[in-house]
Amino acid sequence: QVQLEESGGGLVQPGGSLRLSCAASGRGFSSYAMGWFRQAPGKEREFAAKISRSGDSTNYADSVKGRFTISRDNAKNMVYLQMNSLKPEDTAVYYCTASITYSFYDPRYWGQGAQVSVSS
Question: How far is CA 114 from the centre of its chain?
Fold first, then answer.
C-alpha cells in the first residue's frame, strides 16, 4: 500500500514555472513506476508524464513535452514535476500516481490532487 500526497500547486502567470512535489509513504516506493495525470475543468483526466522505477526512463504527453520534467528521488520517496513555460491550458488538478508497470502504465494509487491555475 502506498499513500501519495501532492504539494506545490498554485496560481502562476502564463510563461511562469511551478514545481509539484509528491511525497509517498508506505512500503516499496522504488518498486513502482510513478506518474502524473491531470484533469482540466470539464475535461477527462489525462496522462501527463511518467518515470520508471530507477528514474532512467521517462515519457511525456505531447502537450507537455519540452516544457515539463518528471524526476524522482528514491532515497526520499519523492516524485517531482517541474513545469516551465506554463500556458492557460495547463490549468488543471494534477494527480500523482503509482503503477506496478512502466510500459503499460496503469495507476494503482492516486493522490488527492493539487490545483494548478495559469492566468494573468
Answer: 10
Question: What is the per-residue pLDDT across 4-53, written as a single tens digit (0 to 9) for each?
Answer: 999 999 999 999 999 999 999 988 999 999 999 999 999 999 999 999 99
DSSP per-residue letters across the chain: -EEEEEE--EEE-TT--EEEEEEEEES-GGGSEEEEEEE-TTS--EEEEEE-SSSS-EEE-TTTTTTEEEEEETTTTEEEEEE-S--GGG-EEEEEEEES-STT--EEEE---EEEEE--
Query: Within its chain, how far is the Cα of 1 from the centroid?
Result: 19
Residue 53 is placed in which grid cell? Answer: 522505477
Contacts of 65 (CB under 8 A, 6+ apart): none
- With beta carbons less than 8 A apart as the criterion, state whether 14 and 87 touch: yes
With beta carbons less than 8 A apart as the criterion, state whether 28 and 46 touch.
no
User: What is the Cα Rg of the chain in Å?
Assistant: 13
